[in-house]
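This part of the workshop introduces the protein records we will be handling. A learned vocabulary of local backbone shapes supplies the integers on the structure line. Getting from the letters to the tokens is the skill we practise here. As an example, a complete record with its sequence and its structure tokens follows.
=====
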Amino acid sequence: MSVEPRLELFRKIKSNIRGSETHLLVGIDIAKETHHAFFGTSNGRTLSKKLMFDNSKAGYESLICYSVNLKDRFGLSEIVYGLEPTGTYHKPLAEYLIGLNKNVVYVSNSAVKNNRALLDGRWDKHDKKDAANIADLVGQGRCLYYDIPDADLRELRGLLSYRIKLKRLEHGLRMRIRNNVFAQYFPSWTGSTCEGGNQMILCFPSPSTA
């Protein structure tokens, strides 16, 4: 499904979902290896709160199967999967569901934090709070469009992210060299720098002049 139909569908869901008795809300608590899903409706009805599934294709298929069975059992018309971005762990699941034309939205970290204190009273007190919190926000229409950029932009973002990671690693190594090696073997070194290409680099004094 192209971006435009997905965006229009999201707008329709967002405007109609509050108080809806026809949408199955699937709140997903994201983790590194195992996710937890909560199933309910916009009016605060809990349908299921026990599904845990692996962060794998087999796990995603079990989530879809479980969701469809619940939808049919309770006579609901649509399923909306909601998640909170957690590192990069949510991306495989979200992109897998979107690839199958499923309704996927996300809620912001700040909304989850602010809504947590208000959760009691809308869902059963024994529900898994994080997953139920996400479902509650989706049911209020406080959800956002999950955008997947085209392949070229995704690759560029990945390269930029990797560059930042390498720069942090480089900085950490510089500090370790300065604070450990130089401090031990060149105690008189004052921490001067010299030009190296387009950036400042550490100047290594020779042992004869240290």
